[in-house]
Amino acid sequence: MEISFNLEQIQQAADQVLTILGKPGCVILRGEMGAGKTTFTQAICRRLGVLDKMGSPTFSIINEYATETGEKVYHLDLYRLKNEAEAIAAGVEECIYSGSYCFVEWPERAPGLFEAGWPVIDIRNVDGQVRTLQIKSYI
Length: 139
Hints:
The protein has helices spanning 10-21, 37-47, 84-90, 92-96; strands at residues 2-5, 26-30, 62-66, 72-77, 101-105, 119-125, 131-137. By secondary structure, it is α/β, with parallel strands linked by helices. α1 crosses α2.
């Protein structure tokens, strides 16, 4: 399934993705730098009821948010990590296996931590305005 959206439609796209996902768990985001992975994750977090100020986890590696109902949502960016050992030392495993929503950018930095079958959202910047995404399974 492919979903196309622009910034005005991003919340509707987030709704569609949450319906497809159906339940909390680890979600892998793939796409080139600037494709919109962080912006899309923030839209999903808004739909999940995150009230905290959200930012990019590029430097913190892990951002933890609370929803209005007290549930946790994690947003991870593994770009700066060199390998799985660094990811484990940073606490990535605790987040991805927490049972909470956990959105992970740049999973290829620690591929052995992710399980086959987990949902993958591939985001592509079509023309600077429109993004497309496809939901697949992690292999």
